[in-house]
Amino acid sequence: MTKGANVSLTALGQDAGAVVVSLGWTSASGAGDADVSVFLLGTNGKVRSDDDFYFYNRPAAEDGSVQLLGKTPTGSGDEDRIGLDLTAVPADIARIVVAASQYGDACFGDLDDLRMTVADRSGEPLVGFSIDDASVESAFVFGELYRRGGEWKFRAVGQGYETGLAGLATAFGISVVEEGEDGEDSPTTPDTTATPGTAPAPSAAGETERGTRTPAAGGPVPAGPVTATAGAAPVPIEHAPVRPAAHAGPAEDAPAVAGVPAQSRGRDGSVTRGAPTTRKKVTLPRVARKSLAENDSWQPARLFPVPTLKSDREREVRATSVLLSVMTQVPELGRRLTAAFGAPAGRTQTFTEVSLPHGDAPRRPDGVIRIERAGKLWTALVETKTNGNPLRAEQVQAYMDIAARRGYEAVITLSNDVALDGAPVVDVKIDGRRKHKVDLWHLSWAEVAHQAQLLIRHEGVGNPAHAWLLQELLEYLRHENSGCHGFQNMGPSWVPVRKGIEDETLNMGDERAVDVVESWERLIRQVCLRLGGELGQKALPVQRARRGSDPRERRLAAAETLCVDGRLSAELRVDGTSGVIAVTADLRTGKVRTSTDVPAPEGPTALVSVKKLVRMLAEAPADLHVESLVEGGSGARGTLERLRPEPGNLLPRDGAPLSGFRLTLIKGMGNTRGNTESGFIRSVDDAVARFHQGVVARLGPLDVRAGRRG
How far apart are CA 161 and CA 187, in angstroms? Predict the structure, then answer.
């Protein structure tokens, strides 16, 4: 179709009661993108309320008439699809306007092959329309569907605006809430009355339905409908939530061409602007909606089923394909995982089971990631292990050699293991004679789950479908059959070292003790990942060694402590707080201790401070140990269960000044080295989670210090 032309949908196909509208574009740089939006307009050319405006923060109508189906990558760009059930559109809706906008300073002239396609419910294309004159516009009305004589018709509009989605929203009766100079949100509610005899300046692509250009601002308005584009651009709606304008006027208040109203202006002809506010992101609620299942045996349908996985090979293939496909479809996750490996931001494609020549027989890495940026390719080979299986050094070495010969940038290993100090988990030889350098990186399944958790629970993603995909990915990773459970084995040295401590036969300098210390560090790193994912903050181990010290020397010192005291100790801190949680695993007593020190709450007397603390811990576990701290030592102690009726028992007996309290929970330690319910790894993970949720989170703004002696 040509710009301005129209056609009856009924004449194009018998099944036109529901259609799928697709907006597509390509980008030479691979970085271009746009957001679609849909407006349902009455006979006056305005929305009835904000319920008639659909975009990334409101993607679907409750009656099913409009559904933004999300982006689908194509060979050289993206395609955004919209489902429209025309039989469900309310009777007082006369037009459905389909538009797209870009963010910030981007414009549609940066994109190529702008096109719109309307297909029936089976996916059979009915009509198409291409736009080839885009330049500086930041918003485009691609086309509209409108009622005429009891049937639906399609009109190819192709009108560009330099005002972004905010300009379109205002034109169709939406008031954009923007942040004023004082920081308060103030609605932009310009008068919609157009100045007689004038029209705003058009964009380079602005045309009337008859195909003629619109005159410049201040010029006479030609007879018939006139396309209008505002001069000054309001802040793009990507920065501002919206609400309907209470004063939306009748259709004759503003000129329109091809069903597109002129952008609203104030009484003096100016456009109201404001400082941008934060773009809203989509997150999922922590509490799931009530299930409609009759009983617990009914399992919900999942996008990535796992019960049929029987072999490690099946698990590796499935896990690789699931992760790489979600990384492609959810750019927030893909970018977050690849940026740490030095990958550029750009168009991403992923592949599995790729055959690459290597000697007499080809090699098949589990996956390949390719990112295009400014015409250049960044490529990484992916080797995956699940179910605790170790990575094989000779296999990784082969992929490093292949990558070097083919000019690839990286090899990424992915397994349950957790990397320490940024080092890979396998040793490979680097041929210094090669000019092309290949980086070796490691990613743990725990890190993948951590990043997905941060996005869908705390930071948000730009599309509800992306949030759902991440939730399905998390469900898959957490399933017992997926094999993607993170670090779950303390290694072969664990049993003999633990037995040596129990029998007091473990000798100083035993290399197996160093292996256990290294496994302990991996466990604490994983505990931090899980805790940080739940809280939405980065949680990291605290290193007391001086900066730049050799990790090997640090582990040797910890191994000596393990041989002498039989204890493994660590501290962790949550980003943005001064809180430090100490974790001690006593292998002689079989107990895990989690503790923290807090200052005494302010009060005129020590007794008032103690009572305040007890009240703050009203919902804490009854077996919490509370110890008063005085200058130079410790004071009285007791469990919270005994202190609640008699808080005075915590006062120092000699009247020494009270400096703070030490709060400690003690939990039995698992016996096995793995991550089973009775395992050591699970017991440490559960102990930290219980302590933070039951104790630290109850303390509020109190300054929390390390709970360690000395």
Answer: 21
CB 175 within 8 A of CB 168: no
Q: Report how far residue 309's alpha carbon sits from residue 331's, in angstroms, rounded to the nearest whole number.
A: 28
pLDDT digits (tens, 9 = 90+) for 92-150: 999 999 999 987 778 888 888 899 999 887 777 889 999 988 888 889 999 999 999 88
Q: What CA–CA distance (Å, rounded) separates 694 from 183?
A: 37
CA pair distance 512, 494, nearest whole angstrom? 8
Under 8 Å between Cβ of 394 and 427: no
Give the model's pLDDT for residue 635. Answer: 77
Residue 69 phi/psi, 5° resolution?
-90, -5
Burial 431-468 (b: 16+ CB within 10 A, else e): eeeeeeebebbbbbbbbbbbbbbbbbbeebbbbbbbbb
With tokens 């090699």, the residue in question is 363
CA pair distance 350, 695, nearest whole angstrom: 44
Q: How far apart are CA 112 and CA 26, in angstroms?
A: 5
Q: Is 605 exposed, middle or buried (0-12, 13-18, 19+ CB in 10 A)?
A: exposed
Mean of the per-residue pLDDT values for the chain? 78
C-alpha distances in Å from residue 692, one per residue of 530, 554, 643, 706, 709: 12, 27, 21, 13, 19
Residue 584 has pLDDT above 50, yes or no: yes
User: For residue 57, which of 345, 466, 474 has the smallest C-alpha distance?
Assistant: 466
C-alpha to C-alpha distance for 565 and 389, rounded to whole angstroms: 32
The answer for residues whose C-beta is within 8 angstroms of residue 251's C-beta and 6 or more apart is 43, 44, 45, 46, 261
> Dihedrals φ, ψ of 342, to 5°?
80, 15
Token pair of 208 as six digits = 């009337």
pTM (global) more than 0.70 = no
Distance, in Å, from the CA atom of 709 to the CA atom of 629, rounded to the nearest integer, reads 11
CA distance 594 to 1: 70
Strands (E), 489-530: none
DSSP codes, 651-703: S-TT-PPEEEEEEEEEEEPPSBSBSSTTBHHHHHHHHHHHHHHHTGGGSTT--
* Residue recorded with tokens 């560009």: 160
**Cα distance between residue 484 and residue 472, in whole Å:** 14
Residue 222 tokens, joined = 């030609």
Rounded Cα distance between 416 and 387, Å, is 7
Tracing tokens 């702008």 back to the chain, one arrives at 114
